[in-house]
Amino acid sequence: MKDLSATLNHVDTRLHYGGRGGRRSMRIHDARPLAESLSLDVEGFVLKRCSTAVANFYDSGEVRSVYYREVEQLVKKVTGATRVVAFEHDVRCAPKARQGTSAVREPVKVVHDDYTEKSAPERVRLYLPQEADALLQSRYEVINVWRSIGGPVAESPLAVCDARSIQREEIVPTEEGVKHEVYLFNFSPQHQWFYFPGMDEDEALLIKCFDSLDDGRARLTAHSAFDDPTTPTDAPPRESIEVRTLAFFAPEI
After folding, report:
1. CA–CA separation, 193 vs 70, rounded Å?
2. What is the rounded average pLDDT of the residues 205-226?
3. How is the chain split into domains, by residue range?
4. Per-residue pLDDT tens for 99-140?
5. CA-to-CA distance for 81 and 24, rounded, in angstroms?
6. Are strands 240-248 and 83-92 parallel, antiparallel or unpaired?
7. Of residues 45, 26, 81, the one with CA closest to residue 205
8. Angle (nearest 5°) at CA 104 between 141 and 77
9. How does 101-123 read in b/e, with b if 16+ C-beta sit within 10 Å?
10. What does the pLDDT read at residue 5?
11. For residue 33, how many other CB atoms are within 10 A of its CB?
């Protein structure tokens, strides 16, 4: 695998590996110089410009009626999927979550991937029960679309790991403490980590969380929020939204 990070700016921090490894010092590289060359099928993540008509991301009704449609169109355009269904979202802001603001959660500072061989098809059956048997016969993906909703991200940015640097034996499925099975990861010094400094509200990070096709392309993407040592002490808390989508591909004829 080609080392993409050799000439990139970086920060050094500690990531929490929820499998075996605990907290490990890792170098996280600035992926912005690579943005035009990244691919969901190779590295497992891409950054795209994406405007939005949403006025209030803390309004769940507006998110579902307006933003879900925007996200579906974005994922369809980027992946070439024939159909995309946005099915759930999380808004994150640590102070608001600690104050008990409804439906707001803290950033997750554990290396993880959202869906697995078990939980990905479960989502299809849960949200599209009448069509699931037919849809699961063809290729499908789970794509997470992550964006800032509170100006440029300075605190608790999101790191993503180049899918090619992860080995199968490092992947640890778990259902402990979560609502469905997710993947945790054992530590490896070979993992190549990246982030996009200062992500703003007109940018969207697409993260491949699952691909039913197992042919050598990226199938999942480890990711985690992290403490950036260069964050100013007076930086505003990160406010973000992530929408998870199911992307379906018609069978080739």
Report:
1. 28
2. 98
3. 18-248
4. 999 999 999 999 999 999 999 999 999 999 999 999 999 999
5. 37
6. antiparallel
7. 45
8. 30
9. eeebebbbbebbbbbbeebbbeb
10. 65
11. 12
- Return the SS3 of 95: helix
Strand extents, DSSP E, 132-239:
140-148, 158-161, 171-174, 182-185, 193-195, 203-211, 223-225
Q: Mark out the alpha helices in 64-215 (DSSP H runs).
A: 68-79, 94-98, 119-127, 132-135
For residue 243, give Cα distances in angstroms to 20, 21, 23: 29, 29, 28
What are the C-alpha distances in Å from 146 to residues 3, 51, 100, 245?
25, 13, 22, 11
Q: Using DSSP, how many helices (H) and how many strands (E) does the chain show?
A: 5, 14
Nearest C-alpha neighbor of 107 from the set 99, 115, 97: 97
Residue type at position 156:
S
Within 10 angstroms of residue 4's Cβ, the number of other Cβ atoms is 19
Q: Report the half-sphere exposure of 248 (CA within 13 A, side-chain side).
A: 18
Closest CA to 45 of 55, 37, 33: 37
Q: How far apart are CA 108 and CA 16, in angstroms?
A: 10
The pTM score is 0.95
Report d(CA 143, CA 210) in Å as an integer.
7
Average pLDDT, the chain: 95
3-state helix, strand, coil in the chain (%, to 5): 20, 30, 50
Sheet holding 223-225, edge to edge: 10-17, 22-30, 193-195, 158-161, 223-225, 112-113, 182-185, 171-174
